[in-house]
Amino acid sequence: VKESLLVIKVGGNVIDNPLACQAFLERFSKLPQAKILIHGGGKIATQIAEKLDIETVMIDGRRITNQATLDVVTMVYGGLINKKLVATLQSLDVNAIGLTGADAGIIRATKRPVKSIDYGFVGDITAIDDKNLTFFLTHGLTPIIAPLSFDASLASMLNTNADTMASAIAVALAAHFEVNLVYCFEKKGVLSNPNNDESVIAALNPAQYDAYKTAGVVNKGMIPKLDNAFAAICAGVSQVTICHAQDLTEAINEQSQGTRLCL
Amino acid sequence: VKESLLVIKVGGNVIDNPLACQAFLERFSKLPQAKILIHGGGKIATQIAEKLDIETVMIDGRRITNQATLDVVTMVYGGLINKKLVATLQSLDVNAIGLTGADAGIIRATKRPVKSIDYGFVGDITAIDDKNLTFFLTHGLTPIIAPLSFDASLASMLNTNADTMASAIAVALAAHFEVNLVYCFEKKGVLSNPNNDESVIAALNPAQYDAYKTAGVVNKGMIPKLDNAFAAICAGVSQVTICHAQDLTEAINEQSQGTRLCL
């Protein structure tokens, strides 16, 4: 029987709010399972870039990462945010270790090829070092991972989407652990009615998901996220949980909140 | 017989100069021994603090670290500089892992008590987790350590002198390894004549050091550094080497450059 592992992604909406972040980390600290946290960036990088007179260019909601912006996200995601999370978790008796993709070579990527848009220093993940991550976990360490991968051939960090990173890490570790991939979300789960925040779909398997899609019930913006989540399950992840950050404990331990995706 | 370990400290003068830094990392990457790098901060933090309109207050050459300054040094030392070093070393086939004191709880400290001067968020080291550092080293990882410790009771990072950190790490690991603590220096070593950069003293034991001090030969500014270095040797470090960054290879492998301190 494989040991349980939680791979939890928390986004900028929690990171940006000190009270919500502290409450989230307290909940996270009490989860008894082996766990990995992948954190997003939030608005701090944009605010610091503005103060440093670095223009933030967004195309289709994606940040274009030039060298100056890469330096800012490396500082803010890999330094300021990551170390604040680690120091707080250490104070909560979690033996946290902050990592970017470059550290111990855990997340390798290639710089995204330029097609119609040059995204700049953005990484498409090519390899996860599941051995080093497993080594940290079995030693009782809790990896706290910033949304930065790296390209060894360029000797460069690369800006990387935290959702994608969480999914890739969950899939890579499914060989060693029974993985529950948890996305903390602004809503309480996948909604059957986007206008009713309480209309959470408790469980979805691929057939039910297809039926919801056919009926036009699932919000269109959720479809790429759910397609990716089911792809992770097909690649060996045992369960994907989508829940609000404040329901983390109940969604994981009691399975009484959020949406659970499984086969 | 204990395995050899190099604990190497490199300062801001190298970090601030991209060509010198790249050359240093290439030399570092080729050293066959187990090794740890502790890096200083350099001028980048001061420049970024200025751009962010955070005033840098220095008293007796020491930065006063208020909360805004702590955030800057956490970003710059723990993020920007540390991850650039790690990504470059990974490209040179060193399995580097960037760490601050908070990561895996390796360097605990207390916030310096306020006496005549309030240094702010500055850490006085209380404990090094030699077990976790040994665990990384024996797994083939090369820790790259930023000059930041942490206080779990405050859930805060703390600004910490890199020289002091290197010495404390070297002493803590002397129980497990035969440690050579290497300070990369602006000069080629300890000089018998401060006006002659070539007047390097090749070797110093405590008796020779006392004789040089009595004769007034050693530059007064060096005395606290050398006192600390001999204290490290008395606490179990096998050797302290003081050399120029560009002489790293010869100073370590051939013992033909720099100053060596031992009993």
Would you kindly provide a written description of the structure presented here, covering whatever features stand out?
- 2 copies of one chain form a homodimer.
- With 263 residues, chain A is of the alpha/beta class.
- Chain A has 9 helices and 14 strands.
- Chain A has an 8-stranded mixed β-sheet, sandwiched between helices.
- The longest helix of chain A has 25 residues, at 67-91.
- Chain A is globular and about 45 Å long.
- The A-B interface holds A 48, 51-53, 71, 74-80, 82-84, 86-88, 90-91, 95-100, 102-105, 132, 135, 139, 141, 148, 150, 152-157 and B 48, 51-53, 71, 74-80, 82-84, 86-88, 90-91, 95-100, 102-105, 132, 135, 139, 141, 148, 150, 152-157.
Uncertain stretches of 5 or more adjacent residues of chain A: none
- N/C terminus separation of chain A: 19 Å
* Biggest interface, residues from each chain: A-B, 42 and 42 residues
Structural class of chain A: alpha/beta
Largest sheet geometry of chain A: 8 strands, mixed
Name a few traits of the molecule:
homodimer, 263 residues, alpha/beta, 8-stranded mixed sheet, two-stranded antiparallel ribbon, globular
Task: Give a brief description.
By secondary structure, chain A is α/β, with parallel strands linked by helices. Chain A contains nine helices and 14 strands. Chain A has helices at 12-15, 18-30, 44-51, 67-91, 130-138, 162-173, 206-215, 223-234, 248-254, and strands at residues 3-10, 34-39, 57-59, 62-64, 96-99, 107-111, 123-128, 142-145, 148-151, 156-159, 177-185, 203-204, 239-244, 259-261.
